[in-house]
Amino acid sequence: MVNPFVRHRGKVVTLLRRDVDTDQIIPKQFLKGVDRTGFGPALFYDWRYRPDGSLDPAFELNSPTARGATILVTGPNFGCGSSREHAVWALAQYGFRAIIAPSFADIFASNCYRNGVLPVQLPASSVDDLVRGTEAGLREIEVDLERQVITNDLGFEARFTADPYGRELLLRGLDEIGRTLLEEPSIAAFERRHG
User: What single-letter DSSP state applies at residue 138?
Assistant: First the structure.
């Protein structure tokens, strides 16, 4: 089970970089665990921390205005590279519920849906409008998965399309095992007929 996502109003942080790959999202030295816990502190580790282990104040997520952000607005081709699911685990455990970008790597987007994070693909011009809003001091937006629309308090509105299967998972708070279990009566009937 994952936390259902119907609509979410949250604070935005921008990471205006393109081609952010999964190695940057969660570096390889943190991939030893498979129990899906403890990855949040390692998110963007090589960018967030200096070699001495202190926070790098120049990194976007370390800004005081980024504290408590639950929506990440970023550049195109986010989540490219290897298909490591750990990247989404790290983003979710850091606190992100939605990621907005002009494009995503396909496997990364699928991993988001299956792990409770909504990947929202918007045209670059709409992403630019959101960024301008945050630069003007408007730090919160609402992402409505049920209606498939993003809004802010300045009248911004952008429609998006979600993967139908992924949308169902998020709206109902299911992972793939939970979704399969919904079909248990059909599976049992099939087994009785063919068993």
Answer: -
